[in-house]
Design a protein that fits this description.
Blueprint lengths: L6 H4 L10 E5 L22 H11 L3 H7 L1 E5 L3 E5 L25 H5 L2 E7 L2 E6 L10 E4 H5 L4 H22 L4 H17 L5 H19 L2
Antiparallel strand pairs: 1-6, 2-3, 4-5
Helix pairs in contact: 6-8
């Protein structure tokens, strides 16, 4: 999800790479009295890797996760996001102690927090430290890539750029389509990248790249 705001409005004004030190380490949130992951609305948008890892981590299919934990929302097309519970306005993956029950397979937006991505164009991004997002006092410095905890950060970054670029192409293509054509395209994307399974984490990046290439060819993107 793209926000059209100035860098200085939402961050400390610096741009970070995955090898930079940044003050984001919460030390496992020790002594923090605040409850995170409440009132997030529909902002925790999920990409295909997020949903794949949620399926692996929870043992649930996309359809099963859709029963209680994720929902569809109109953003950059139609994409899934984490569902907030009506009763608490909290993330549907919070446990009884208000702790994350999926920390090992949490989505990319959650892994970055309180970092975000700043896109220079469709193929280049940096990380930013968002202002006033984390309630924990005395955060300490940690390398961005260690904070993210992604096993192969280079492949992951290439995937993030590839998926971002694909979504931008879809957005531009939709400007000239009818409502029915847009609906067909959205259903196709959901089926191709979310509900259709992937073989394994080792093959995920290659599989999604093949699906994107096939989609771009099919729709002339």
């Amino acid at each position: 999800m793209i926000r059209n705001v100035g860098l200085e409005d939402i961050s400390d004004g610096r741009l970070y790479s995955e090898n930079d030190l940044v003050k984001t380490d919460t030390n496992n949130c020790k002594d923090c009295k605040k409850i995170c992951c409440i009132g997030m609305g529909k902002t925790i948008v999920l990409d295909p890797y997020d949903c794949f890892m949620l399926s692996v981590g929870t043992g649930k299919t996309f359809e099963q996760l859709s029963d209680n934990n994720i929902e569809l929302n109109v953003v950059d097309g139609i994409l899934p996001n984490i569902r907030m519970l009506k009763s608490t306005d909290g993330c549907s993956f919070l446990n009884e102690d208000n702790k994350c029950s999926i920390h090992g397979c949490r989505p990319g937006i959650c892994r970055m927090f309180p970092l975000g991505r700043y896109w220079e164009d469709d193929e280049h991004f940096h990380y930013i430290l968002q202002k006033g997002e984390c309630n924990k006092d005395n955060l300490t410095k940690i390398k961005v890539k260690k904070w993210l905890g992604i096993s192969d950060i280079e492949k992951y970054n290439k995937y993030i750029i590839m998926w971002h670029r694909y979504l931008k192409k879809i957005q531009r293509a939709m400007a000239g389509l009818t409502d029915e054509q847009i609906r067909t395209l959205n259903i196709y994307n959901l089926k191709t990248f979310y509900t259709t399974g992937y073989k394994s984490e080792d093959t995920f990046y290659d599989e999604v790249a093949e699906r994107i290439e096939s989609s771009e060819t099919m729709f002339g993107l």
